[in-house]
Automatic annotation (TrEMBL):
Keywords: DNA damage, DNA repair, Magnesium, Metal-binding, Nucleotidyltransferase, Nucleus, Transferase, Ubl conjugation, Zinc, Zinc-finger
Domain called UmuC: residue spans: 8-240
Region (Disordered), start-end ranges: 567-602
Family: Belongs to the DNA polymerase type-Y family.
Superkingdom as given in the UniProt entry: Eukaryota
Protein name: DNA polymerase eta
Keyword Zinc set for record: yes
EC number: 2.7.7.7
Protein location: Nucleus
Cofactor(s) named in the record: Mg(2+); Mn(2+)
Reactions the enzyme catalyzes: DNA(n) + a 2'-deoxyribonucleoside 5'-triphosphate = DNA(n+1) + diphosphate
An annotated GO cellular component: nucleus
Amino acid sequence: MSYKERVVVLVDMDCFYCQVEEQLDPSLNGKPIAVVQYNTWRGGGIIAVNYPARERGVTRHMRGDEAKEKCPDIILARVPEVRGKADLTKYREAGKRVAEVLQKFTPILERASVDEAYLDITEAAKARILRDCNQLQVENLKNTFVVGYDIQDFLHNVTNNAEYFEDNCRLAMGALIAEEIRAEVFAKTGYKCSAGIAHNKILAKLVCGLHKPNKQTILPHESVPALYEEIPIKKVSGLGGKFGSTLTDQLKISKMSELIKFTEKELVKLFDEKTGKWLYNIARGIDYEQVTPRLISKSIGCCKKFPGKSALTSAESVEHWVNELTSEISERMEKDAQENNRRAKQIVLHFTQTVNERDVSNSRTLPLNSYEQHRIAHICLEALKKILSQARCSSPVERNFNTSKNLEESECSDESIKSNEPATTLIPNSSEELNVLDEWEQNNLDSLKTCPDCKKTILQSEFESHIDYHYALNIVKEEAHLYKRKSIESNTMTRASGESSNHLRNTKRKCGDMKSIEKFLCSDNELNEGNSELCPECNKRIKFEDIISHMDYHTAKKLHLEINQQPSASSISDKTSIKSKNKRKKDVKNMGSIVSFLNNKR
DNA sequence: CATTCTGCAAGC
DNA sequence: GCTTGCAGA
Ligand SMILES: Nc1ncnc2c1ncn2[C@H]1C[C@H](O)[C@@H](COP(=O)(O)OP(=O)(O)OP(=O)(O)O)O1
Ligand SMILES: [Mn+2]
Ligand SMILES: [Mn+2]
């Protein structure tokens, strides 16, 4: 498939945490604001800045005090503190509301962070070109910029010679849909966002930021070389860190356009096969990375740092913070279990200490059989003691802790807790961290039912959505003439389902995030190119004989959404999982004081 | 003394 | 399978 085939959109909320705060307190409207976490030390650390405050020179990473100097009338909103730590719940929930709106436009949606998501709307754009090319007018793309073009000229080209400019025509239609997506996000949530529209993820991400806030940008492929002349290498996703620095230093280049000088062979030789080829393609505006459908996180974690003198120095304090962190984890995991029908099977405990000026970190994957706070805490504390007692103690120095857990891939999930505390006395600058991580298991205790309409055997947990499916299908049959197939990509979530599957950890299987209706439709295994094709709407493999009814299903879903505007709030997901097993023992040196504290205590 | 997250892949 | 490091919001 051509590198110009797809229409990929990256939607990113504008100064997201600030917008969340502005909506909660409308008196902040129009004023310069920033969001800080903690405020006792130099006014707290700034993690989000709204646009009026940016004009005044305030940036992320500044301290609250510094922001006040730059902009005396700035309002500093504070991240809530619960259990003595920052609590990001309200931002996660706001992000979830946004994702629920985006999800109505396509199931090929990948949440990339709390405030952004990639959407592959190739099929929707193609379908709409067949009937709505006349809508590609400036008045329908009022918030759209096109790199390298005046929008008027760009639209003129694609509408007058749609075949010759078919790739740009798809991008233009993608932008029209993106305008609608963004309008819907604002209508449903009150939040403004920006978007990038391009043939791949890397470029969509890159151009989303060119016209913020509340605007969107198209990048036609032929505009890549000129754009790259202006783009520092570190601005491209994946090149913002050490690897990007290696490029600028070793290759003596600074702009993306300079990368094109190198042959694929040279790049493969300089780095490895995978990296070299990737870089060679990126230099030409080519990126084949798929938008991987994923609506919910694979891991749940929390952590706390204890910088400098606040480093934890007693067993009691360590125990206290492990309790606080496991309490938050327990609460969030329980909620996740209700919403997503999955359970973590493992937890990862992680902590770091500062020993002789150097960070030493440890982590252990531990089995998790219960979400009860005290049980999780017990598991973590036992592991912690074991690790520290095996460490060679001699010179007592500093430490800090932190814990975290993660959810697992398709079917599993984890949690993580992070805390960070200094353990011993002495040295003023110390820190530690603890982490916990787990995987999930899905509940297999589903009973079977027979559908009264189609007589198929289905899981109890999928019964409701299965009936919804018949309901929607019937309406479609009656009113199909009102709705063209493939008009707008949209998709509602279905109810949560149980379902079990097997270990899919690390296996690339799209079925992991499938909704129950889709699972029902895709229940046959053994699908291959000889007996099936990929659905243009959802990219799932469908048997030839089922493709017509499968497309009806998509139409039904769209219609159902309009009829019943109540999107059911749960997604499905998961299942199985695995694991348990734990770890090995690694020695850590210089773990003096905390070890003795722990040993003394128990 | 930026902090609190999340995802991915390499290397063992 | 597990730990670690990198990259990003
Ligand atoms: N380094 C960080 N540490 C903690 N939270 C962060 C960090 N970076 C970003 N966040 C949070 C706060 C942001 O509002 C939110 C989304 O990040 P991001 O999209 O990069 O910026 P933003 O939404 O604040 O502004 P922009 O309008 O430029 O997108 O994630
Ligand atoms: Mn943002
Ligand atoms: Mn973002």
